[in-house]
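Thought: the user asked what Aminoglycoside phosphotransferase family protein looks like in 3D. I have the sequence; next I should run the structure tool and report back without guessing.
Action: structure_tool
Action Input:
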Amino acid sequence: MNTFNADKVFSHFQFEGELVSITPTGNGHINDTFLVTTNAPKNYILQRINHHIFKSPETLMENIEAVCAHLQQKVLAEGGDIEREVLTLIPTHAHTSYFLDNEGYYWRAYVFITDAISYDIVPNNTVFYNAAYKFGEFQRFLLDFDASKLYETIPYFHHTKNRFNNFLHALENDCVRRAKTIPAEIDFVLSHEQDASSLIELYESGKLPLRVTHNDTKINNIMIDAYTQKGICVIDLDTVMPGLVAYDFGDCIRTGATSGAEDEVDLSKVHFMLDRFEAFTEGFLSSVGAHLTNDEIASLLIGAKIITFECGIRFLTDYLEGDTYFKIHRPNHNLDRARTQFKLVQDMEHHWQELETIIQKFMK
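Observation:
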């Protein structure tokens, strides 16, 4: 994206120092992100919020303000550095957390976290353990935050039953006539229909409490200290909403405990990594496990399977609908993505007893 608009937006925020440069940064697919360099000691992140995905940027920012304020209190109480361990919003000169430009785009700014790394692929078990500990801490710090006070920034985001129904609708319409080419993938989804309701049924039966959840806990949504490899700060809070702890545990397992890329064509390279699962489970439960119910802890493994299955459904649904949601870079890209997710689900099912043993090993 051209930085012209970002340059014009700079003057509306309470940045320290004079502008030196604004350059695109990151590889996110939703928002436009820029690194702002000034002649002051601090640098900043400036983002243009994608209001096509997030229909109500105002309520999204209300969520982020409230959650960050709560996290800052917790970090301060434990003697931490709030500008390093919590996203720090930079207010506008109008004392708001966002700026609405003349073209209808919403902008926000954060303090840039120095000496930190964001990984797209988990490099080793140590980093995965440390990321898990920080994600667990994120949950622990927000246990006393009333989740019902948060807005749903994307309704039904992790409602797997709804995702399954969307798949059925796409299959019935078959608008680009692709269904006949993927009978195995369709059969896989249909054979797991009962799984699609498993977490929802546990919640509706009262066994799982509603928590504040991040809902997009990919490994690149946590900053890792460049020197110590410790987790520093959970970032990208756009999808912070009411949810289940199993969502956050499951999504990071989905993206971090795999031997292959999300769009790997050769499925022989895609395996569920038990050692990664164990490292993450240990880190997560050592941080927050003592504060979760036994039913919540038991649901974590279900979350790993269901969130992976859900993501596969979403890729396959988009493939059936003509690739209208996820960006693709080659023919069958979404189909390849769906196949990797289903392969991971199969691996989890094959190792289910071993995975249950790992969970039990780290229960308090």
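Thought: the tool returned a structure. Summarizing for the user.
Final Answer: Structure for Aminoglycoside phosphotransferase family protein predicted. The CA atoms of residues 197 and 290 lie 27 Å apart. The chain has two domains: 4-114, 125-361.
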